[in-house]
Amino acid sequence: MATSVPSTQQQQPAGQKRKDTIDWTEYFMAMAFLAAKRSKDPSTQVGACIVNEEKRVVGIGYNGFPTGCSDDEFPWSKSSINPLETKYLYVCHAEVNAILNKNSTDVKNCTMYVALFPCNECAKIIIQSSIREVVYMSDKHALKEHTVAAKRMFDAAGVKYTQYKPPHSQIVIDFTEIDWDSLNQVPATPKKDNMNAEAELRRVEKLSIE
Ligand SMILES: [Zn+2]
Protein backbone atom coordinates (compact mmCIF):
# COMPACT_ATOMS: atom_id res chain seq x y z
CA MET A 1 0.00 0.00 0.00
CA ALA A 2 1.31 3.43 -0.89
CA THR A 3 2.05 5.66 2.02
CA SER A 4 2.82 9.31 1.81
CA VAL A 5 3.96 12.09 4.05
CA PRO A 6 1.16 14.64 4.23
CA SER A 7 2.09 17.97 2.69
CA THR A 8 0.46 19.92 5.45
CA GLN A 9 0.73 19.65 9.20
CA GLN A 10 -1.68 17.29 10.84
CA GLN A 11 -3.40 18.21 14.05
CA GLN A 12 -1.54 16.98 17.12
CA PRO A 13 -2.76 17.12 20.68
CA ALA A 14 -1.86 20.47 22.18
CA GLY A 15 1.67 20.67 23.51
CA GLN A 16 2.90 17.52 21.75
CA LYS A 17 5.39 17.40 18.91
CA ARG A 18 4.41 16.30 15.42
CA LYS A 19 5.09 12.64 14.72
CA ASP A 20 4.43 12.56 10.97
CA THR A 21 7.70 14.20 9.95
CA ILE A 22 10.17 12.90 7.39
CA ASP A 23 13.42 11.47 8.77
CA TRP A 24 16.89 12.82 7.95
CA THR A 25 17.60 10.35 5.18
CA GLU A 26 14.29 11.08 3.45
CA TYR A 27 14.94 14.77 3.82
CA PHE A 28 18.35 14.62 2.13
CA MET A 29 17.29 12.19 -0.59
CA ALA A 30 14.23 14.33 -1.31
CA MET A 31 16.57 17.33 -1.68
CA ALA A 32 18.56 15.38 -4.27
CA PHE A 33 15.36 14.62 -6.18
CA LEU A 34 14.17 18.21 -5.92
CA ALA A 35 17.50 19.36 -7.41
CA ALA A 36 17.01 16.84 -10.25
CA LYS A 37 13.85 18.70 -11.23
CA ARG A 38 16.13 21.52 -12.38
CA SER A 39 17.85 19.28 -14.93
CA LYS A 40 17.21 20.06 -18.61
CA ASP A 41 18.34 16.57 -19.69
CA PRO A 42 15.36 15.01 -21.52
CA SER A 43 16.39 11.42 -20.73
CA THR A 44 18.03 11.32 -17.28
CA GLN A 45 17.52 13.76 -14.43
CA VAL A 46 19.87 13.17 -11.50
CA GLY A 47 20.33 15.21 -8.33
CA ALA A 48 22.90 14.91 -5.55
CA CYS A 49 22.99 16.31 -2.02
CA ILE A 50 26.11 16.32 0.20
CA VAL A 51 25.69 16.32 3.97
CA ASN A 52 28.39 16.71 6.60
CA GLU A 53 28.79 14.87 9.89
CA GLU A 54 26.59 17.45 11.64
CA LYS A 55 23.70 16.69 9.24
CA ARG A 56 24.14 19.99 7.47
CA VAL A 57 23.79 20.26 3.72
CA VAL A 58 27.04 21.53 2.22
CA GLY A 59 26.41 21.02 -1.49
CA ILE A 60 23.64 20.30 -3.98
CA GLY A 61 23.86 19.71 -7.72
CA TYR A 62 22.12 18.24 -10.76
CA ASN A 63 23.28 17.16 -14.19
CA GLY A 64 23.73 19.89 -16.75
CA PHE A 65 26.13 21.63 -19.08
CA PRO A 66 28.94 23.80 -17.68
CA THR A 67 28.29 27.45 -17.01
CA GLY A 68 28.26 29.41 -20.26
CA CYS A 69 27.47 26.34 -22.36
CA SER A 70 23.90 27.05 -23.39
CA ASP A 71 21.19 24.43 -22.77
CA ASP A 72 19.72 25.55 -26.08
CA GLU A 73 22.89 25.30 -28.16
CA PHE A 74 24.67 22.20 -26.86
CA PRO A 75 23.26 18.79 -27.85
CA TRP A 76 21.11 16.66 -25.53
CA SER A 77 21.18 13.62 -27.87
CA LYS A 78 22.32 10.25 -26.58
CA SER A 79 23.41 9.02 -30.00
CA SER A 80 24.68 10.57 -33.20
CA ILE A 81 27.06 9.67 -36.02
CA ASN A 82 29.15 12.55 -34.78
CA PRO A 83 30.15 12.09 -31.10
CA LEU A 84 30.47 15.87 -30.84
CA GLU A 85 26.70 16.01 -31.26
CA THR A 86 25.95 13.88 -28.18
CA LYS A 87 25.57 15.15 -24.63
CA TYR A 88 28.26 12.89 -23.18
CA LEU A 89 31.21 15.09 -24.07
CA TYR A 90 29.68 18.12 -22.37
CA VAL A 91 27.41 17.25 -19.47
CA CYS A 92 28.55 17.62 -15.84
CA HIS A 93 27.10 14.93 -13.62
CA ALA A 94 25.13 15.85 -10.50
CA GLU A 95 27.79 14.43 -8.18
CA VAL A 96 30.52 16.65 -9.61
CA ASN A 97 28.30 19.73 -9.56
CA ALA A 98 27.32 19.05 -5.94
CA ILE A 99 31.00 18.77 -4.93
CA LEU A 100 31.97 21.91 -6.86
CA ASN A 101 28.98 23.81 -5.43
CA LYS A 102 30.07 23.10 -1.85
CA ASN A 103 29.73 25.98 0.58
CA SER A 104 32.32 24.51 2.96
CA THR A 105 36.09 24.27 2.77
CA ASP A 106 35.90 20.60 1.83
CA VAL A 107 33.54 17.64 1.85
CA LYS A 108 35.76 15.38 3.95
CA ASN A 109 33.85 12.59 5.74
CA CYS A 110 30.57 13.74 4.18
CA THR A 111 27.75 11.54 2.87
CA MET A 112 26.41 11.99 -0.65
CA TYR A 113 22.73 11.29 -1.36
CA VAL A 114 22.26 10.66 -5.07
CA ALA A 115 19.41 9.40 -7.23
CA LEU A 116 21.52 7.08 -9.40
CA PHE A 117 24.65 5.05 -8.58
CA PRO A 118 27.68 7.20 -9.52
CA CYS A 119 29.63 6.45 -12.70
CA ASN A 120 33.37 5.72 -12.61
CA GLU A 121 34.33 9.33 -13.38
CA CYS A 122 32.22 10.65 -10.50
CA ALA A 123 33.48 7.83 -8.26
CA LYS A 124 37.05 9.06 -8.77
CA ILE A 125 36.08 12.58 -7.75
CA ILE A 126 33.98 11.36 -4.80
CA ILE A 127 36.96 9.34 -3.51
CA GLN A 128 39.45 12.16 -4.09
CA SER A 129 37.24 14.65 -2.26
CA SER A 130 37.18 12.30 0.79
CA ILE A 131 33.43 11.69 0.81
CA ARG A 132 33.01 8.65 3.03
CA GLU A 133 29.58 7.32 2.11
CA VAL A 134 27.21 7.25 -0.87
CA VAL A 135 23.48 6.64 -0.43
CA TYR A 136 21.85 5.98 -3.81
CA MET A 137 18.37 5.13 -5.00
CA SER A 138 18.67 3.50 -8.42
CA ASP A 139 21.29 1.01 -9.58
CA LYS A 140 19.83 0.59 -13.06
CA HIS A 141 23.27 0.54 -14.69
CA ALA A 142 24.63 -2.09 -12.30
CA LEU A 143 25.86 -4.31 -15.11
CA LYS A 144 27.52 -1.54 -17.08
CA GLU A 145 31.29 -1.23 -16.98
CA HIS A 146 31.28 2.30 -15.54
CA THR A 147 29.24 1.14 -12.53
CA VAL A 148 31.31 -2.00 -12.00
CA ALA A 149 34.47 0.14 -12.12
CA ALA A 150 32.94 2.66 -9.69
CA LYS A 151 32.15 -0.08 -7.16
CA ARG A 152 35.62 -1.56 -7.56
CA MET A 153 37.14 1.82 -6.71
CA PHE A 154 34.73 2.48 -3.82
CA ASP A 155 35.57 -0.95 -2.36
CA ALA A 156 39.30 -0.33 -2.67
CA ALA A 157 39.07 3.16 -1.19
CA GLY A 158 36.69 2.20 1.63
CA VAL A 159 33.78 4.36 0.49
CA LYS A 160 30.60 2.82 1.86
CA TYR A 161 27.60 2.65 -0.49
CA THR A 162 24.03 1.84 0.50
CA GLN A 163 20.88 1.57 -1.56
CA TYR A 164 18.12 3.70 -0.12
CA LYS A 165 14.72 2.15 0.54
CA PRO A 166 12.23 4.96 1.08
CA PRO A 167 9.86 4.45 4.04
CA HIS A 168 7.16 6.40 2.23
CA SER A 169 6.27 6.08 -1.45
CA GLN A 170 5.56 9.80 -1.72
CA ILE A 171 6.55 13.10 -0.23
CA VAL A 172 4.02 15.64 -1.45
CA ILE A 173 4.37 19.39 -1.47
CA ASP A 174 1.01 20.78 -2.52
CA PHE A 175 0.93 24.56 -2.24
CA THR A 176 -2.83 24.56 -2.74
CA GLU A 177 -3.29 22.66 0.53
CA ILE A 178 -1.71 25.42 2.55
CA ASP A 179 -4.31 27.63 4.20
CA TRP A 180 -2.61 30.96 3.74
CA ASP A 181 -5.53 32.85 5.26
CA SER A 182 -5.03 31.19 8.63
CA LEU A 183 -1.69 32.96 8.84
CA ASN A 184 -3.75 36.05 9.67
CA GLN A 185 -4.36 34.51 13.06
CA VAL A 186 -0.76 35.24 13.92
CA PRO A 187 -0.75 38.59 15.79
CA ALA A 188 0.69 41.27 13.58
CA THR A 189 3.93 42.82 14.76
CA PRO A 190 3.13 46.36 15.98
CA LYS A 191 4.82 49.04 13.97
CA LYS A 192 7.51 50.87 15.86
CA ASP A 193 5.89 54.23 15.16
CA ASN A 194 2.62 53.02 16.64
CA MET A 195 4.39 51.60 19.68
CA ASN A 196 6.07 54.92 20.32
CA ALA A 197 2.82 56.79 19.85
CA GLU A 198 0.99 54.47 22.24
CA ALA A 199 3.76 54.79 24.83
CA GLU A 200 3.60 58.57 24.53
CA LEU A 201 -0.18 58.50 24.92
CA ARG A 202 0.11 56.37 28.09
CA ARG A 203 2.75 58.76 29.45
CA VAL A 204 0.53 61.79 28.82
CA GLU A 205 -2.49 60.02 30.37
CA LYS A 206 -0.41 59.14 33.44
CA LEU A 207 0.75 62.74 33.81
CA SER A 208 -2.77 64.07 33.51
CA ILE A 209 -4.00 61.67 36.21
CA GLU A 210 -1.22 62.79 38.53
ZN1 LIG B 1 29.04 10.46 -13.18
UniProtKB/TrEMBL annotation:
The keyword Glycoprotein does not apply. GO terms for molecular function: dCMP deaminase activity; zinc ion binding. Supplies the nucleotide substrate for thymidylate synthetase. One of its GO terms (biological process) is nucleotide biosynthetic process. Belongs to the cytidine and deoxycytidylate deaminase family. One of its GO terms (cellular component) is cytoplasm. Its EC number is 3.5.4.12. Residues 23-150 form the CMP/dCMP-type deaminase domain. Keywords: Hydrolase, Metal-binding, Nucleotide biosynthesis, Zinc. PANTHER family: DEOXYCYTIDYLATE DEAMINASE, DEOXYCYTIDYLATE DEAMINASE-RELATED. It catalyses: dCMP + H2O + H(+) = dUMP + NH4(+). It comes from Anopheles farauti. Its cofactor is Zn(2+). CDD domains: deoxycytidylate_deaminase. The keyword Transcription does not apply. This is Probable deoxycytidylate deaminase.
